[in-house]
Design brief:
The protein is of the alpha+beta class. Helix content is 20%, strand content 39%. It has a single domain (2-95), classed as Nuclear Transport Factor 2, Chain: A, CATH 3.10.450.50. The chain is built from 2 helices and 4 strands. The longest helix has 15 residues, at 9-23. The mean pLDDT is 87.
């Protein structure tokens, strides 16, 4: 799935950004909190926009996007050596209508 890929180098990163901006032309990213220490950084992010274009295996839905996540970044000199994003991809796809909501099982009151 496109959300679980490893991107290496400028060309792949550029392609990833182009894919994102073609699928979400009004894409916005906010960083409400962050921490920087030495060559490492961590931050919370909030992504918003409207899913107006296709992602691989996910046609445009026209639905609004509001997604929270976090990232860890490792720097070497002035370059990013590693950048890992963490987000709830299941809920993201659910909100876009690509996945059905899980069936809720009633909890037993005899616990």
């Amino acid at each position: 799935m496109w959300m679980e890929q490893i991107v290496k180098g400028k060309a792949e990163l550029t392609a990833e950004f182009n894919l994102t901006f073609s699928a979400i032309p009004d894409f916005k990213l906010q960083w409400p909190s962050y921490f920087i220490g030495g060559n490492m950084a961590s931050f919370e992010w909030i992504m918003t926009g409207t899913h107006q274009g296709d992602f691989p295996d996910l046609p445009a839905t026209g639905k609004p996007i509001f997604q929270r996540g976090s990232a860890i970044v490792e720097m070497r000199g002035n370059k990013i050596a590693r950048h890992t994003n963490y987000m709830d991809g299941f809920t993201f796809l659910q909100k876009l209508g690509a996945l059905e909501a899980p069936i809720q099982t009633p909890r037993s009151s005899n616990l």
